[in-house]
Amino acid sequence: MTGVPEPPENHPDRLRWNERYRAHDGGFEPHPLSSAAAVEGLPEGPVLELACGRSGSALALAAKGRMVVAVDVSDVAMADLRKRAQDKGVAELVHCVLADASEYRPADDFALVLATRYWDPSAFTIAVGAVKPGGLLGWEALAVPGEHEGALPPWHIRHGDLAALVPEGWTVLAEELIRQGHRRFSRVLARKAGPP
Ligand SMILES: C[S@@+](CC[C@H](N)C(=O)[O-])C[C@H]1O[C@@H](n2cnc3c(N)ncnc32)[C@H](O)[C@@H]1O
């Protein structure tokens, strides 16, 4: 499914996120983008989730019979997701891959590629290239409003950037700016042209 090597133990993202996951339990709720994608309609085929964490989306999609390739740099999150998938009886369908999302090279075409609460431009390019014709891309990232001027905080995008990065010929089905407390998230759902 992938030829990408595991991230080294001193990979800065792996260290940072392992620490966070060790400090906090939970986080198995499905993301609204996974249900929004299902409502829009998905072609046959597997789902790829990049930077999945303890993905409730992967578990929910697998519970509906989808094969999910779940990629994350944190071995702690991957171990927790694998265990939860076993407990839920969907371990056969959730393939956990320990990898840096910016280096992951998908071997399949996917009905849905999902990444939530994450931003990396190389991973976005990889995600776009992994969607099969008629399939969907769902992405959510920390955002500043579109009118924000000046440098962006780390891991943020400007609202509007995601839709602008969706390739020509695709259809943007939804683009939203979500406020949660002091944080904002830009969310986009888009379909690649092709048979549904
Ligand atoms: C804010 S969490 C979001 C987790 C999940 N997608 C969600 O919506 O709850 C960010 C996730 O990105 C993962 N991550 C950070 N850097 C990464 C990288 N370079 N490659 C793959 N995953 C990464 C972290 O381990 C963490 O699970």
Automatic annotation (TrEMBL):
Gene Ontology BP term (one): methylation
UniProt keyword list: Methyltransferase, Transferase
GO molecular function: methyltransferase activity
Highest rank taxon of the organism: Bacteria
The keyword Ribosomal protein belongs to this UniProt entry's keyword annotation: no
Methyltransferase listed as a keyword: yes
Pfam families the record matches: Methyltransf_25
Entry-linked InterPro entries: Methyltransf_25, SAM-dependent_MTases_sf
Descriptive protein name: Methyltransferase domain-containing protein
Upper taxonomic lineage: Bacteria, Bacillati, Actinomycetota, Actinomycetes, Pseudonocardiales
